[in-house]
Design a protein that fits this description.
Layout (H helix, E strand, L loop, with lengths): L2 H7 L2 H10 L4 E2 H8 L3 H13 L3 E6 L2 E6 L1 H20 L1
Antiparallel strand pairs: 1-3, 2-3
Length: 90
């Protein structure tokens, strides 16, 4: 597992975004409203999440719609599960 993934998740706003996306695809406009941040700030956060392959992006007109990359999420879960399983063996 690359450390950049966990670094991306270490930011409170990015964690909130991931939590929002757990309910399904969401428009950037809804994220902006919920977090009360500027569009450039959201773009920065989404770029970071996208670079780590944590989110997928779909464009419709001027808006971007985001969803969780389930493959990457599974990799994170597997990584953490392996750590937990190794701890329980000791």
């Amino acid at each position: 597992m690359d450390p950049e993934t966990f670094k991306a998740l270490s930011d409170g706003n990015r964690l909130k975004i991931i939590e929002m996306l757990a309910d399904g695809e969401i428009c950037a406009c809804k994220i902006l409203e919920a977090l009360n941040i500027t569009q450039p700030t959201l773009s920065h956060h989404m770029k970071t999440l996208h670079q780590c392959n944590l989110v997928n992006t779909r464009r419709v007109g001027q808006w971007a719609y985001y969803s969780i990359n389930e493959t990457k999420l599974s990799e994170i879960i597997d990584f953490l599960t392996d750590i937990r399983d190794n701890l329980s063996k000791n």
